[in-house]
Amino acid sequence: MGSGRIGGLELGDARRTRRLSRLVEELSAHPLGSLPVASGGWAETQAAYRLLANPALEWREGLEVHTPQTRERMAGQPVVLCIQDSPELDVTTPPGMVGRGRLSYEAQHGRYVHPPLVVTPPGAALGVIAAWMGARAPKGKATVKASVRGREGYGSVAELAEVTAGTRFV
What does pTM read for this prediction? Predict the structure, then answer.
């Protein structure tokens, strides 16, 4: 861990790597809990939020590390379910948050996430194999529809199914 890397992700700072490793362990131990529940205290929660707000931590890079681990967890599974939806991350308040965009209507702000989630038929989550995040363009401007993201997600699933022998993708 002291090398500044976690699962192939280059964070550039050993302290960030240790913090991220600890956060991943905490969240894994409390998969249904909130970040404050998983963190176990106010100082740890604040540290987690500072880490997640750090511009050196790019979510796409994290996904590049996560996806091969998801593939490993899928190995040997006779059937996997690939579920995709477009949940909203609504951050209408607090105002001024960076990266917000329009959601369903002008006064609602946040981001849409389009993650194909892989689970076993009994419901064990194996991971996410791709993701897209974005917001609607301002009124009157062209925007990428959720159906396009759905087709892209299907493409990611189809590509993975081609190279994953012995597993049926549903």
Answer: 0.66
